[in-house]
């Protein structure tokens, strides 16, 4: 199965957080699964690190290192992802999460997330 990891999932994994569920760990560590991280997550990290909401010493570079170090594939933001955002209902107003949902829909990916708003979009979620 192919998965798109939410931003917090990558950060919690890197920080060995107890918040990461067993189902999330299983999806992430299963050899047969492809795991993607959206450039929208990198954008979110860059924005939130610059305003002090995240505390990554090396900023978005540190996030890339986390993703690369875990063998995650970076998913670019495409025109179809952006067009899909426009069609989404407003279950969630967070622009980063809306772009993640749009990418998951367009690419047929399940989302590994603890965000309880994401399943309302009809995408498969693992947590």
Give structural notes.
The protein has helices at residues 7-14, 22-29, 39-50, 59-69, 79-87, 95-107, and strands at 2-5, 34-38, 73-75, 110-112, 125-126. It is of the alpha/beta class. It has a single domain (2-126), classed as 5'-nuclease (Rossmann fold, 3-Layer(aba) Sandwich), CATH 3.40.50.1010. α3 runs antiparallel to α4 (59-69), α3 runs antiparallel to α6 (95-107) and α5 (79-87) packs across α6 (95-107). The longest helix is centred in the C-terminal third of the chain and has 13 residues, at 95-107.
TL;DR of this structure?
This protein has 127 residues and is α/β, with parallel strands linked by helices. The protein has six helices and five strands; from the N terminus they run E-H-H-E-H-H-E-H-H-E-E.
Level-1 CATH class name: Alpha Beta
CATH topology: Rossmann fold
| Overall number of strands | 5
- Give, in spatial order, the strands making up the sheet with the most strands: 3-2-1-4-5
Q: What is the name of the CATH architecture?
A: 3-Layer(aba) Sandwich
- Output the CATH homologous superfamily: 5'-nuclease
**How many domains would you count in the coordinates?**
1
Q: Report the biggest beta sheet as strand number plus sense, adding barrel if it closes.
A: 5 strands, parallel
| Estimated share of beta-strand residues | 5-15%
Measured as a percent range, the helix fraction is 40-55%
N/C terminus separation: 15 Å
Roughly how many Å is the radius of gyration?
Answer: 14 Å
H and E string: EHHEHHEHHEE
Shape, please?
globular
Oligomer: single chain
What average pLDDT do the residues reach? 95
Give unreliable regions as ranges: none
Q: If helices are DSSP runs of H or I spanning 4 or more residues, what is the number of helices?
A: 6
Kindly name the structural category.
Answer: alpha/beta
